[in-house]
Amino acid sequence: MKKFIVLKAFMALLVGFVSLGLLSCNDNDGPDIPPVKLQDVIGNYKGKLIISQGNNKNESIVGFAVKKDTIKFTDLPVKEIVKAVVKDPVKTEAALVALGKIKYNLNYTGAINTYYNAVELTFAPKTLELNIPMDGAIKKTIVTFAAKEKGFYVGQNYAMKFGLVAEKITVDGAVLTPYEMIKYDFPYCIKN
Questions:
Q1: Which of 171, 189, 140 is nearest to 41 (CA)?
Q2: What's this model's pTM, rounded to 2 decimal places?
Q3: Nearest to 47 by CA among 152, 128, 119, 145
Q4: Where is the signal peptide (predicted)?
Q5: Which one-letter DSSP state was computed for residue 135?
Q6: What CA–CA distance (Å, rounded) separates 42 from 180?
Q7: pLDDT in tens, the chain (192 residues)
Q8: Residue 77 and residue 27: Cα distance in Å, rounded?
Q9: What is the C-alpha to C-alpha distance for residues 6 and 34, in angstroms, rounded to an integer?
């Protein structure tokens, strides 16, 4: 009986060592991820945009094109910006219709981060100038954008993530006060 228990223990130990040995023979500890290149970022994207101001959040799907050093929006949502200037919901909608599609170019520089197999994007946002019609006059509005964090392009899933903040709005030369910052978060955008 004693020999049988020792034999069982020896077999269990042998099976354990063989299992560990087979696991350690696996050279491929993860999926093969091809390295990224700076030009991999270039293309057309579509993804989620979350615009938040205080406790208010709006989500939409937006599209944009990425060139060598610029992200080009052909229709940047500016409802929250116009609402901050106009205040009246009915006049805000009329102003948005009058403005039409808003084009905006966001400059960036890319650097390869090989450890994460991604391209880090450092932004240099330009101001956005809007001529908002209100009460028969045109309000010259300048929006100052900032990029608080770097953006990323991940080669494994062809996705981009970044964000912007509308830090300050100036209307006819005067800084808009009170004003709560508007955040533009692009948490997951996929290359078409």
A1: 189
A2: 0.81
A3: 152
A4: 1-24
A5: T
A6: 33
A7: 555 565 565 555 545 555 555 555 555 555 666 789 999 999 999 999 999 999 999 999 999 999 999 999 999 999 999 999 999 999 999 999 999 999 999 999 999 987 778 999 999 999 999 999 998 999 999 999 999 999 999 988 899 999 999 999 999 999 999 999 999 999 999 999
A8: 49
A9: 50
| CA 82 – CA 96 distance, rounded (Å) | 7
- Residue 16 structure tokens: 């354990």
Question: Which H/E stretch holds residue 171?
Answer: strand 159-171
The domain limits of the chain are 38-191
Residue of 60, 44, 63 whose CA lies nearest to 52? 60
Interatomic CA distance for residues 155 and 145, integer angstroms: 27
